Amino acid sequence: MNLLANILTNLSLFCGFISIILSLERHFTFAAWAIIISVIFDGIDGQIARRNPIPSAFGKELDSLVDVVAFGIAPSVLGYVFIYDHFHVIAALLLFSYLLCSVLRLAKYNITAKEELANCFIGLPTTASGGILASFLLIYRRKEDMFIPPFLPDILSPQFMPVTFLFLVLILSFLMISRVRYLNLDGLKKILGKHVKLTVPIFLILLILAGITQKFGIGLFTLFLIYLIFSPFVVKRLNGS
User: Fold this and answer.
1) Of 59, 154, 231, 238, which one's alpha carbon is 20 to 30 angstroms from that of 145?
2) Overall pTM > 0.70
């Protein structure tokens, strides 16, 4: 089990590395998808690791180091190269802050007692933050499919895109190092109870529908956004506070 989990972790690392290469080659859609695939590998290896009766300290450290690359460095490089053609001081500083918060969040996770992480994460998981940035850029790549009411500003227009993206980076950076609690897989199983087995089929159906309508970016971003906004409230209900 540990070997299989580590293999999947390394596949997640490979996807993060490929995303960086694709970003530098300006293949932005493929770079964003590489991060999304890395999110999937990270989720699967976490599930496998939880089924192992003997936790692997090596696997935990490896997973955190890989997450720095796949969900810290890769989204930062993707966002920076996508938005700017030349050096931009403010963007560089904000994206470095995002990377720093990713590292701090993972370091904190590694030293947090297992009992505190029974049903939730403390701070937004780097997996979710990386997925949010990647799916946001996927939306921008297909922004012509979106309906934006005429009375609202087009936040995905070239004029607003850098500000919108960097504002999102700031929010995610803060949430990663915050004390806000986010649902993990154990908490999700506890909330759903006997209905937990329906989660994967429903998730797959939603992705298939998004694929049929060619709105993968919007679908993925919506799912991540639901987790970002509602997960803390679910955790409070779970903990009875």
Assistant:
1) 231
2) yes
3-state secondary structure at position 179: coil
DSSP state of 193: G
What angle in degrees, to the nearest 10, is found between the helix axes of 28-51 and 74-83?
170
Residue 198 CA from chain centroid, whole number: 22
**Which pair of tokens denotes residue 40?**
């999937």
Q: Which residues neighbour 20 within 8 Å (Cβ) at sequence distance 6 or greater?
A: 31, 69, 73, 74, 77, 78
| Alpha-carbon torsion (207, 63, 230, 200), positive or negative | positive
Which tens digit of pLDDT belongs to each residue from 115-149?
777 778 899 999 999 999 999 998 876 554 444 44
Structure tokens at 47: 């599930």
What does the alpha-carbon distance between residue 112 and residue 152 come to, in Å, rounded to a whole number?
Answer: 43
- With b for 16 or more beta-carbon neighbours within 10 A and e for fewer, the 61-74 pattern comes to ebbbebbbbbbbbb
Q: What is the pLDDT of residues 145-173, one digit of tens each?
A: 444 444 445 555 666 778 889 999 999 99
Residue with tokens 């796949």: 70
Q: In 3D, which of 18, 28, 25 has the Cα closest to residue 140?
A: 28
What domains sit in the chain, N to C, each tagged with a CATH number? 2-238 (1.20.120)
